[in-house]
Design brief:
The structure holds 2 protein chains of 2 kinds. Chain A is an alpha+beta fold. Chain A has 2 domains: about 1-75, Beta-grasp domain (Ubiquitin-like (UB roll)); about 85-150, Orthogonal Bundle (DNA polymerase, domain 1). Chain A has helices at about 20-30, 85-90, 100-115, 120-125, 140-150, and strands spanning about 1-5, 10-15, 45-50, 55, 70. Chain A has a 5-stranded mixed sheet, with helices on one face. In chain A, a hairpin with a 2-residue loop joins strand 3 and strand 4. Chain A starts with a strand and ends in a 5-residue tail after the last helix. Chain B is α+β, with helices and mostly antiparallel strands. Chain B folds into 3 domains: about 5-50, Uridine Diphospho-n-acetylenolpyruvylglucosamine Reductase, domain 2; about 55-115 and about 165-220, 2-Layer Sandwich (Uridine Diphospho-n-acetylenolpyruvylglucosamine Reductase, domain 3); about 225-330, Enolase-like, domain 1 (2-Layer Sandwich), CATH 3.30.390.50. Chain B is built from 11 helices and 12 strands. In chain B, helix 9 (about 275-280) packs antiparallel against helix 10 and helix 10 packs across helix 11 (about 310-330). The N and C termini of chain B lie far apart (about 55 Å). Classes of the chains: A alpha+beta, B alpha+beta. Chains A and B meet through strand 4, helix 3 and helix 4 of A and helix 2 and helix 6 of B. Chain A: One of its GO terms (molecular function) is oxidoreductase activity, acting on the aldehyde or oxo group of donors. Chain A: It holds the Pfam family Fer2. Chain A: InterPro entries: 2Fe-2S-bd (IPR002888), 2Fe-2S-bd_dom_sf (IPR036884), 2Fe-2S_ferredoxin-like_sf (IPR036010), 2Fe-2S_ferredoxin-type (IPR001041), 2Fe2S_fd_BS (IPR006058), Aldehyde_Oxdr_Iron-Sulfur (IPR052914), Beta-grasp_dom_sf (IPR012675). Chain A: This is (2Fe-2S)-binding protein.
């Protein structure tokens, strides 16, 4: 059995060694907010936090998360449904069109802010480059992260 | 995907014992960013994975020593890139890390696993095509195919796939070594001896035995670190593999003459590529546009282009020249 926490909830599952964390989140735990894009670590749609750090869940073996804490997009809003400021900022700044990449963008954006990689907009672009948006909402995504991170450094 | 067993030993000794008992098709597994990816494609088919990504003893980063910077094998690329001494005194190392992959992948990938990253040649990654690296003797689909990304240095008749990494190129320029543990004990391998050219056996990419585990990387402390850069040229500004890259580190005399110079190339060669002739072309002289260009030409002198990648020769030359300019400017501060 593999025991770990997802959004503060303890889970204990029999996993196939071949299963990715992404597959377990979707197929076993029915948490469909985390999206499968390329399934090869190239698009960032499946980004989650593992012990507080952003990773791509498609290239994380489920077996590797034994004893660790996973946070997905379902764990971002308040328990009463109040949106996180970054979720609100994505709406305010039209930071999406189709929305498929958005959970990954938000998980990556939260980490980008926490890491302090928001000194200027070029730094945000560099540290968000692992999250592709085929609708091309990049300008809004950078603006949303800027809104939450505060003004650029002089 | 072929089924496999998964074990997560808690010490280096247990990991080495586990790989020995798991048989010849067992593999060490760390960040998973290359190996799990290739397993999904059927390119890698291990029978057993021995997970070394959570061995605390291998996660140490120690940049305080007088002789070497020490990076534990399982230290993450993102953590080494953020080390204050690396950022301040070794921009070539920091840039080679933060200009690679994405922050998600750098949070996963280990600094030792990254040394053994496999090529991104599209034919290697696709079972539909012949590939001498993936299936020895099957042929090379890139030869008559889309070889725009292929190497121009260190190529052979069997394979011209480019080495994809950045950090190993920077380490090669700084004369790093790796310490390796296996059933026969511990040994040290220089970066220069770690990777091999494809020759007739492109499936063999390095000089380690399957049961040997890299436990740490050591980089000799050098003042050339401050006058250094890793310049990476690619199709887009971020999150792409190098078409051409140059790791350059220099020291200057008081009069602005290049005293010591190290140059290594990425993106253009089948392995991390040290350009000794280019180093000699600038050592003992002040850097000018002419000497920088001459160094670039010396670095690519032996290049053999394929069908669509001849552009990498001039691109490589110019990348070396520009990296020299940046490194000398930093050394002069």
């Amino acid at each position: 059995m593999t025991a770990f926490e997802v959004n503060g909830r303890k889970v204990d599952l029999e996993v196939d060694p071949r299963e990715s964390l992404l597959a377990v989140l979707q197929d076993r735990l029915h948490l469909y907010g985390t999206k499968k894009g390329c399934d090869h670590g190239q698009c960032g749609a499946c980004t989650v936090h593992l012990d507080g750090r952003r990773v791509v869940s498609c290239l994380t073996l489920a077996s590797q998360v034994e004893g660790r804490e996973v946070r997905t997009i379902e764990g971002v809003a308040g328990e009463d449904g109040t949106l996180h400021p970054l979720q609100r900022a994505f709406i305010d700044n039209d930071a999406m069109q189709c929305g498929y990449c958005t959970p990954g963008q938000i998980m990556s954006g939260l980490a980008c802010i926490a890491e302090g990689h928001t000194g200027d907009d070029d730094e945000i672009r560099e540290y968000m480059s692992g999250n592709l948006c085929r609708c091309g909402a990049y300008v809004g995504i950078v603006a949303a992260i800027r809104q939450v991170a505060g003004p650029a450094e002089a | 995907m072929r089924s496999f067993t998964y074990t997560a030993p808690t010490s280096v000794a247990d990991a080495v014992a586990a790989i020995a008992s798991a048989g010849p098709q067992a593999r060490f597994f760390a960040g998973g960013t290359t190996l799990f990816d290739l397993m999904k494609l059927g390119v890698e088919r291990p029978s057993a994975l021995v997970d070394v990504s959570r061995l605390g003893e291998l996660e140490v980063i120690d940049t305080s020593g007088d002789d070497h910077l020490v990076f534990g094998a399982s230290a993450r690329m993102a953590d080494v890139a953020a080390d204050p001494v690396v950022l301040r005194d070794y921009p070539v190392l920091a840039e080679s890390l933060w200009r690679a992959a994405s922050q998600q992948l750098r949070n996963m990938a280990t600094v030792a696993g990254n040394l053994l990253q496999r090529t991104r040649c599209p034919y290697f990654r696709d079972e539909l095509y012949p590939c001498n690296k993936r299936r020895p003797g099957s042929g090379c689909a890139a030869r008559d195919g889309i070889d725009r990304g292929s190497a121009v240095l260190g190529t052979g008749d069997a394979c011209s796939a480019a080495f994809a990494g950045d950090w190993p190129v920077a380490l090669l320029a700084l004369d790093a070594v790796v310490d390796v543990v296996g059933p026969r004990g511990e040994r040290t391998v220089t970066l220069a001896d770690l990777h091999v050219e494809p020759g007739d056996t492109p499936d063999r990419e390095h000089s380690l035995a399957p049961d040997e585990l890299i436990v740490r990387i050591r980089v000799p402390v050098t003042p050339a670190g401050r006058g250094s850069t890793y310049l990476k040229i690619r199709d887009r500004e971020s999150y792409a593999f190098a078409l051409a890259s140059a790791a350059v580190a220099v020291t200057l005399t008081g009069g602005g003459v290049v005293e010591e110079c190290r140059i290594a190339l990425g993106g253009v060669a089948t392995r991390p590529w040290r350009a000794y002739a280019a180093e000699r072309a600038v050592t003992g002289r002040p850097l000018s546009a002419e000497t920088a260009r001459a160094a670039g030409e010396a670095a690519l002198a032996g290049a053999r282009p394929g069908n669509l990648n001849a552009f990498k020769i001039e691109l490589g030359e110019r990348t070396v020249a520009e990296a020299l300019r940046i490194a000398v400017e930093r050394a002069g501060r």
